[in-house]
Amino acid sequence: MNRPCPSIALAALLTTLVALGPLSTDLYLPALPTLARAFASGAAEVQLTLSVFLAGFACGQIIYGPLSDRFGRRPVLLAGLVLYCLGSLGCVLSTSIERLVFARFVQALGACAGPVIGRAVVRDVWGASESARIIAYIGAAMALAPLFGPTIGGLLTVWLGWQSNFVVLLLIGLVQLVAVGRMLAESNVHRDPEATRPDRMIAGFARLLGDRGYLACLLCLAFSYSALFAFISGSSFVLADRHGLSPQAFGACFGLVVAGYLLGSVTSGRLVRRVGSTCLLRYGAWLGALAGAGMAGLEFAGVRQIWALLAPMFLCTAATGLVMPNAISRALAPYPAMAGSASALMGVVQMGVAALVGVAVGQGLSADGSALAAAVAACTLLAALSYEILGGRPAAR
User: Fold this and answer.
1) What is the pLDDT of residues 382-395, one digit of tens each?
2) pTM (global) more than 0.85
3) Range of the domain at 386
């Protein structure tokens, strides 16, 4: 099978694979209050279905990256999609919150194959110079999932019950499994037969973490995404409890916020050749920090109208749209022979930090709705400071 060539069709397929993780969380967000009632659980317990998903997402990536460096992208991706379908079926059949949490963990172990291998395929096919632009446009298209996902999920929850969200995810997984099997050729021409040796894996990850430029991009990405995930995990409870929004109205508000990510990603794709990824990454990080500070300032000043949450968060997601593609491309560019491992490590830290932030938000919301604003402000500030303190260009290899 020949190595794939750059094409719109390949970019479209990779977009659906990278979007598998966000879609698996965003689609059922409007159902979280319904799940709490259905299983007689509190906000913290239901929120675990999100945080455990991220934990599984992080754990899986540390394995998929080296596996794809050794055996190739295609077979590892197919195995991950099979696991995702099994986990989605488990979610549909869950009869308790504990079983749903476990099924979500299995679902996440499969879902993470999409982003980690999809980003590596972009590096394989488009190379270092064009990766930022392609990842930005993939991110813009990927934003359609969280843009419309909560709205669709809200309607499904009202009309057919919370299980229907996971039925849809199962069908999406099956379609992707067929599409990858028929359309995706192997892209890894630098296979490393020793990539999965534990000592090689540890040495490779240590080498990456020893690169200040890679570490700067890694932490900036992780904290920027964690700010977004704080909103993802806490917004349904804040908007439903504090503002009394229905699942459908929540979906519309969530879509409005995600439109900011779409704007940031499109802007990045259009400007990266002219402005450069370094400037876009730095500007995005500080835009997020200012927006997060504004959200927290309004919250603690007692301004708790719905606009005081949505307007700053729109700017935060726009900032994330600027940060993510440029952080990913700059981090992976110097490592063509270990793009899978470098992508995996980014995913592990990104999802691991976000999972911890999600748990903190879930616990904080039980006592005070201001936990969401505080988490967003802290994460966006840490994203900007991480890049400024560690900054610099990833070392060429």
Assistant:
1) 999 999 888 754 44
2) no
3) 8-183+196-390
